[in-house]
Design a protein that fits this description.
Blueprint: E1 4-7, H1 8-15, H2 17-24, H3 33-49, E2 53-61, E3 64-80, H4 87-94, E4 98-100, E5 105-118, H5 130-148, E6 152-157, H6 161-169, E7 173-179, E8 191-198
Antiparallel strand pairs: 1-2, 2-3, 3-5, 4-5, 6-8, 7-8
Length: about 200
């Protein structure tokens, strides 16, 4: 199946905010309500403010285009301290970072896959795999890096075997952990794994 990836900004610029929000009501993600909440309540505003860009992924169902998933990307600064990486990978990554004596670590700005999720409404999640959805997000980031440079992309996720194995199977490796503020903590989690992917040899398509 082929998919269409559309910038949410282009949708609300064309249809208006009210109609766009009506379209987004057809997105459901019961397994991760934060993913659903972001798309419906924050994505448009974050796009307007330039904080992030959200991309809607459409697939075909009964000869109609339906939302099968989405992803949001942003440029975010993070701190590299105790890197869980091999010496060779650490040296490559630090080339893109700046040492900060105050925090005794390296500061680096990288593209972040901030949110990603399939649409479980009406079984549309069956129309796309998690691997394909993640690849579409990486394709978009690679397009940007081809224009402005850059080598890495990162994401943050809960420390579960399922999530770790999923991202590792798609070329991501764990490079650290970020402690959560109290208002960020859900399901008892006090930190998130930080996982990174080297896009140097990544090919779109």
């Amino acid at each position: 199946m082929s998919y269409k990836v559309i910038n949410l900004k282009d949708i609300y610029d064309s249809l208006g905010e009210t109609k766009t929000k009506d379209i987004l009501t057809n997105y459901k993600c019961e397994i991760n309500k934060d993913v659903e909440y972001f798309l419906k309540e924050k994505a448009i505003e974050f796009s307007k403010q330039g904080i992030s860009r959200t991309y809607i992924v459409l697939g075909e169902y009964k000869k109609e285009n339906v939302i099968v998933g989405y992803f949001a990307i942003a440029n975010k600064s993070t701190v590299l301290k105790k890197l869980i990486l091999s010496n060779s990978k650490r040296k490559k990554l630090i080339k893109y970072a700046k040492y900060d004596a105050d925090i005794k670590g390296y500061s680096i700005a990288l593209p972040l896959i901030g949110q990603i999720g399939k649409n479980f409404d009406n079984g549309y999640n069956e129309l796309i795999s998690g691997d394909v959805l993640l690849k579409l997000a990486c394709d978009k980031i690679k397009e940007i890096q081809n224009l402005i440079g850059g080598r890495y992309v990162f994401l943050e996720c809960e420390d579960t075997d399922k999530l770790r194995e999923f991202y590792e199977s798609n070329g991501f490796v764990c490079f650290g952990k970020r402690n959560l503020d109290k208002d960020e903590r859900q399901n008892g989690s006090v930190y998130l794994l930080q996982m990174i992917k080297d896009m140097n040899k990544y090919e779109i398509g």
